[in-house]
Give the backbone structure.
Amino acid sequence: MSTSVLDMSVSLDGYVADPDDFLGGEDGERLHKWAAAGGGSGRLSEVAAGFQDEWTAAGAVLAGRRTAELMDHWGGDHGGLPIFVPSHRPPGPAARWGYPLVTYVLDGIESAMAQAKAAAGDKDVQVRGAYTAQRALEAGVLDEVQIHQVPMLLGRGRRLFDVLTSEIELEIVRVIDTPEATHIRYRVRR
């Protein structure tokens, strides 16, 4: 059975991006530097390679519209995976005609997740985007949360869990501590 997993890098103070949608630091990528901590070789660290294996083993992606558009829908696929985008309005021209693996779902987060899980089969659905993660939690369709907590204070911007309508209990599944980030995976308690 498919599991939906939010996977996000986040600063210690809870931000996933600055006000201009950059990820911190002079190059705008500070929150993702943990993944390339392979001794300056440009290769993924051993820990990041393990996460890369998880990401590529997924069967589908559910991404918020803002995230999908900022990433240009990952060029029409996310490593060959179908992408489902919950939205209140139809897609723009590129997603509508140029990206056959991108599906905009106009009838709610529950429907979008159901379609993503059906496409994923027994593989994971990778969830992308803070707003979409919040809505998925509220709707009870997000199964797990994986956080890569980076030891920095971004100080402003877009928070991962800015506004939730109720408390949500989580259970720790795994913790991997590295000098670059602490990686925590939680299961959403129902």
